[in-house]
Design goal:
Low-confidence stretches: none
Distance between the termini: 33 Å
Strand order of the largest sheet: 1-2-3-4
Mean pLDDT: 82
Order of helices and strands: HEEEE
Shape: flat
Strand content: 25-35%
Helix content: 10-25%
Number of strands: 4
Radius of gyration: 14 Å
Number of helices: 1
Length: 72
Amino acid sequence: MSSSIDFYLKQLAPLVGGTITALARSGASDDPLDEELYGFVVKCRDGKERTLILLSDDEGNGPGSFMFNEDA
């Protein structure tokens, strides 16, 4: 039986063995209520760079989530 954790782990799998090459930020939004987000850039074993943006709140009352962008 597959769980939501399996879904996230499958998305993260390309990062294994990669190297963090830079820190990333989402940039300011047009909406002043939106907060800027942060994460990091990973150079993966397949040669692609992927940006992982962290989407957790500061309270830390849950495992949080993430946004995965693949740069061409």
